[in-house]
TrEMBL record:
<dbReference type="InterPro" id="IPR036388">
    <property type="entry name" value="WH-like_DNA-bd_sf"/>
</dbReference>
<protein>
    <submittedName>
        <fullName>DNA-binding MarR family transcriptional regulator</fullName>
    </submittedName>
</protein>
<dbReference type="GO" id="GO:0003677">
    <property type="term" value="F:DNA binding"/>
</dbReference>
<dbReference type="InterPro" id="IPR036390">
    <property type="entry name" value="WH_DNA-bd_sf"/>
</dbReference>
<keyword id="KW-0238">DNA-binding</keyword>
Length: 92
């Protein structure tokens, strides 16, 4: 699945045609780069704070992401892909 998302993502950037939902971009970024802090994800997707928070909430609600508090800085929330999502889509 990640290869297909990557192809669509590349097409989107080369043509400036919006093809992906922001939630898929978040999943792609985490799948390729590992767990990421919320602020990094927001910068990578180019979303506003409210839009980013809505995207993250939807992904948490459906069980696609899990969140942890950073050990280094208790103010940081780190998001990673849930085991459910990995087993259903990414590892296939």
């Amino acid at each position: 699945m990640i290869d297909e998302i990557r192809k669509i993502f590349n097409f989107q950037h080369s043509t400036n045609v919006k093809c992906l939902h922001n939630e898929l971009v978040i999943i792609k970024e985490i799948a390729e780069n590992g767990p990421l802090p919320s602020l990094d994800l927001m910068k990578r997707t180019g979303r506003s704070i409210s839009g980013h928070n809505q995207d993250i909430k939807r992904l948490l609600d459906i069980g696609a992401l899990k969140m942890e508090i950073s050990n280094d800085d208790k103010r940081k929330i780190i998001y990673s892909i849930s085991e459910n999502l990995k087993s259903e889509f990414i590892n296939k």
